[in-house]
Each structure stands twice: as structure tokens, then as C-alpha cells.
Amino acid sequence: MSPMRGTFTTSAVRFDTADRRLRRHALSLTRHPGGWTLATPDGEVHVPPTPGLDEVPHDLRWLVRAFTRGDDLVQVPHIAEPSPVTVPPDPSARGVVLAYLRTQIEEVAVADLAVRRDERRAAPRMRTAVCRLHDTLETYSAILGGRKEVRGFVTELRWLTSGLDAACDIAAQWDRAHNHLAGLPRRFVTGDAELRIDQYFGCLTEEAGSTVFETLDSERYLWLLNALDVLETVLREESRSVWPKAAKRPAGKVLPSLIGEVVRLVDRRVEAAVAGSAPVDRVGKAVDRLRHAIEAAAPIAPSGVGLELDRLRPLRKSLGEHREAVIAREHLRVLRRVAAEAGEAEFTYERLERRETATADSAARDLAGAWRGYRAQHSPLWT
Fold first, then answer.
1. Domain boundaries in the chain?
2. Handedness of CA 226, 92, 253, 308 (dihedral sign)
3. pLDDT, tens digit (0-9, with 9 covering 90-100), for 278-318
4. What is the pTM of this model?
5. What is the maximal distance between C-alpha atoms in the chain?
6. In the predicted model, what is the mean pLDDT of the chain?
7. Angle at Cα 260 formed by Cα 254 and Cα 264, nearest 5°?
8. pLDDT tens, residue by residue, 215-239
9. What CATH number does domain 93-374 carry, 1.40.20.10, 3.40.50.720, 2.102.10.10, 1.10.10.10?
10. Concatenated DSSP letters for 135-195?
11. When comparing pLDDT for 80 and 60, which is higher?
């Protein structure tokens, strides 16, 4: 039975985990004469009543799995919402980074709900939060207990990203193929090219969706969410006497130097890419890591951080176009092969492939200049 949207105002019985995880995340699950309603910040989901069923329907338990972590949903009393306790931010290096990590851990669960509700752009939103966690743990491992302590989390976050990648890319690639096809003179378009593209990406979309839900419904995924919670709690509550010296220092004195290390990592990868000894996509990953490192440091200099992120945009746009073109070229090669095997004309896909190759090559040539442009404006805050 598919969840439906709706609003009910009659008296209701509330359900939550024993430790009130739904309420802590601004979610409300209630049973009422009209059925069941899950209220979220993005709207409500309604499931009609099932005669003889008093427990929470499977559809709703599945939607909130990232919040409940598989724990039972039980009837809980309605209580007045107490005023939240304001905790002053921790200005230490570890305190600032942990606040950013906590935000991204919560964002993964929120994006998970959006994915399960089939909201537009939900999978990319979730992948971004996962990448932020991964990159932050790598960049700031020195103040989070050491690289050895976070290595396992980095590996598991890469696994989670791999389960989301196809779903994030396919929709954009489908649109890209149609847009480029529409830009070709009609004489270069075979009569069945549009249908072939739709069939191809339609199949990939179904496969990618299956992979996403296989990942999100796995025990490995729940283990990772719980482990991230434990990591954040342990690092926050650990006695400061055992924190690394850098972790205890003011964030403004520590984070810029760690961001500088990421800048130098991009330096090396740009140099290798220009020399042809490393792929351009490794530069893209390093630039994303730099962006996330800067975002995490926002509390120490909001205006400076905003300026740094603005300066990165031209480079990120160029790298993004390179990545999309390379992925598109691989899809077009598959389409060429499929057309050949079916005895159909290949020249439409060949022409589109040449266009994507030219786009990728142009972006690669612009890479060094775009990075030099950023380095020339690089704020002293991060050096």
C-alpha cells in the first residue's frame, strides 16, 4: 500500500522509539481514526487504516528507518514540547569540526527520508552529505583521534557513496543526451535514436533505483549510521585531557593550516593531471574535499569562507563539466555498440561522442588556468 499525502486533525495516538528519536528530528507519527500520519518538515504522509492492525504499517516504518535504526515504534504519551536548551558552541578545533559532522550525520537521515519518498534530487542530496562526512574525516583526522581511528569510517562511507552514484548520475545523463540530440541537425539523427536513448536510460534508472534501496535497506547501512553517532558522541564527551594538543586549540589557529594541506594536495593533483600522469577526476575529488574543508571552518570566519567558496566555483564548474562529459562519452559508446549489434546506424552516437570528447578535452585544458586563478586569489586566512 503506497503512502498518500493528507492532513488529519482529530485526536491521535503518537508513536516513537523508546528514546524519542522521531521527536528529536522534528518528525511526528500518529494513529487516528482516519489511519496513520507521518508529519515531516517537508509535509505529511498518510496511510489508510488496516483493520485489525495496531502496529505501525510497514510503509511508514520503512520511511523512517534511518531515524529509528530498526528499533521498535511504540505508543508514547503526548508531552508538551520543552524549550530547547541552548548549548554555547565549542570554539576549539575539535568542537567546530564535530558540529559540522553532527549536521551532516543528521542530513544523511533527512535525505534518506527524501529518497524513500522519491523526492527530486534526493539521491544527490544524500550523496553530498555522505561525501562531506568522508572528506571531513580525512581532512581533520589529526584532531579527531588520528587517521587510524577514522580509516574504517572512510571506507564505509565510500561504500555508501558507491550505492548512490548511479542514481545520482543517470537522470542528469538522460537529460544531457536529449539536450545534445536536440542540438544536432536533423540529418545527423537516426529515426530511432531518441527511442533507443530512452530505452537505455530507462533500464539504467530501474537498476540504479534497485541498487539504492538495496544499500539503504542493508544492515551494513544501519551499522554505519549507528557507528557515526557513537564516534561523534565519544569524540565530544571524551575528556579533554586526552585530546590531541591541536584539537584543544582555538579552531582559528588550527583549521587554516589543515585546509592548506588540502590546497597543496590539489596542487599536486593538478600538476599530475596536466602532465598526463593522473586522471582529471582525482583533481575533482580533491577540490570537493577542499570545498568541504572550508565549509566545516565556517564558524571561524563566515565572510572569508563565503568568499573562498565563491572563488572555487569556476574551477568546480569546469571540473563538473569534464566529469559529465566523460561519463556521457562512456554511455554513448555503449549505445553505439548496442546500435551496431541491432544492425542500426551508429553515426548519431558517434557524433555525440565526438562532441563530449571535445568538451572533456577543453575542460582538461582549462584546468591549470582555472586553478591558477583560484590560487592567485587564495585568502591569507587559509595559508
1. 13-76, 93-374
2. positive
3. 999 999 999 999 999 999 999 998 888 899 999 999 999 99
4. 0.91
5. 74
6. 91
7. 150
8. 999 999 999 999 999 999 999 999 9
9. 1.40.20.10
10. HHHHHTGGGTT-HHHHHHHHHHHHHHHHHHHHHHHHHHHHHHHHHHHHTS-GGGS-TTHHH
11. 60
